[in-house]
Amino acid sequence: MKKIYVLDTNVLLQEPNSIYTFEDNDVVIPAVVLEEVDTKKRHMEEIGRNARQVSRIIDKLRLQGKLHKGIPLPRGGKLKIELNHRSYQKMEDIFIEKTNDNRILAVALNLHEEEKKKANGRQVILVSKDMLMRVKADALGITAEDFLNERAIHKDEVYTGFREIYTDKEVLDRFYKSGDVPIKDLAGSYYANEFFILKNRANPSQSAMGIVNSSGILKPCNFSSDHVWGIKPRNAQQTMALELLLRKDIPLVTMVGKAGTGKTLMALAAGLMQIEDLGLYKKMLVARPIVPVGKDIGYLPGEKEEKLRPWVQPIYDNLEHLFNVKKPGELDGILSGLGSIQVEALTYIRGRSIPDQLILIDEAQNLTRHEVKTILTRIGEGSKIILLGDTQQIDHPYLDEYNNGLIHVVEKFKEHPISGHVKLIKGERSPLAQLAADYL
User: Fold this and answer.
1) Is there a single domain that holds both residue 133 and residue 198?
2) Is the separation of the CB atoms in 420 and 161 below 8 Å?
3) Strand order of the sheet with strand 357-361?
4) Could you tell me the strand order of the sheet in which 4-7 lies?
5) Average pLDDT of 415-435?
6) Are residues 346 and 385 in contact, defined by beta-carbon separation less than 8 angstroms?
7) Per DSSP, what are the bridge partners of residue 80?
């Protein structure tokens, strides 16, 4: 039986095309949602862009008929702007204040009560990204759901970039001797540039690690150096990360891991080695999304570099470690002398073409799918881009660990040999940092 979906404002602001994703069911947008969208359309960031896109979509549908009566959707349902079911009488004893959220709930509740009186009444479902909105709907007896269509995955199983396989000693001996093993003999499926840790079934302490090439052959890792700009890998996943970071034939690298796993430090060290020592790229472009943790500090005085400094300070902290800086201000002199590291705001990346550079995007979990697409389509010939992030630390109001831009890149590109991914497991910053990442 067809259903009626009532959409909250945050669903439209997260995905403007969400009205087309409910198959042959009817979609209802309360009038107050249009009012909220209207207040966002002048914003210059992603939410404002989506608000303007929603306005264009609904205005285009308006040309097909009366929105308050219902407009047919391509997959069989109807879109309706609800004007009549706004009575607050049934809710005023429960939720006293007539907030916008409560007005949306009132629409869903009145539609729900109306459908209950019909012989073949349809189920009314409120769709919202707001958890408390869904809780309130449930308290009123209304079915409520999260909007999951924009998720990169629908199972809580994010691609890690590596697997462990228990095998016979003969396979390990063959791998050590010949340096290649067809991965199809060991695993039912695989992705190009996926890492496999082979362990002796009889003696698990005997192991080997390799990376699958585009032909499905497991090869030993190329990374064999003791250190990269003084940074030594301390665990298997860090070795995998350095393998990907130093491979010229893998222009897209994604790394996910908790705080303190070494993502930014290794990426900077590998970048400096490839630029300063090997001369593979002209320079390194480093950027972070400007999303504050806690209350925003407001406008900052000074030139662009001074304004960016608070946001990119973690980058400078890692560079101070790599250059073994001892005195305040010494790093600025080093970077000025090198001239090969540029710290930039993502705000200015649209319209650019970036060839022959190493691009490092830190905190990429705070980017939307659209923002990541904008960044990746700027990459020119001969460039390499590295996306880093911790999906457990998301500050964007409409993103979570399964729909952020970083995870979209991980899941969409895992089948392509131009990309590589690894999830870092163990924190190496300090025992305290590891405990905090695990238990807080």
Assistant:
1) no
2) yes
3) 341-345, 283-288, 357-361, 384-389, 252-257, 419-424
4) 71-72, 78-82, 26-30, 4-7, 124-127, 143-145
5) 87
6) no
7) 28
Report residue 92: phi and psi, to 5°: -65, -25
Task: Give pLDDT tens digits for 266-284.
Answer: 999 999 999 999 999 999 9
CA distance 139 to 135: 6
**Three-class SS state of 377:** coil
CATH number of the domain to which 59 belongs = 3.40.50.1010
Q: How far apart are CA 155 and CA 133, in angstroms?
A: 23
Residue 190 sits in the same domain as residue 332: no
DSSP string, 73-97: -TTS-EEEEE-S----TTTTTTS-S
Instruction: For residue 53, give every residue at least 6 positions away whose Cβ sits within 8 Å of its Cβ, in sequence order, or none.
Output: 16
pLDDT tens-place string over residues 235-266: 999 999 999 999 999 999 999 999 889 999 99
Edge-first strand order for the sheet with 181-182 is 162-167, 195-200, 207-212, 217-220, 181-182
Has residue 228 been placed in a domain? no
Judgement on whether residues 86 and 16 belong to the same structural domain of the protein = yes
CATH code, domain carrying 389: 3.40.50.300
Asked whether residue 367 falls in the same domain as residue 429, the answer is yes
Nearest Cα to 161, choosing from 206, 221, 91? 221
Rounded to whole angstroms, how far apart are CA atoms 335 and 309? 14
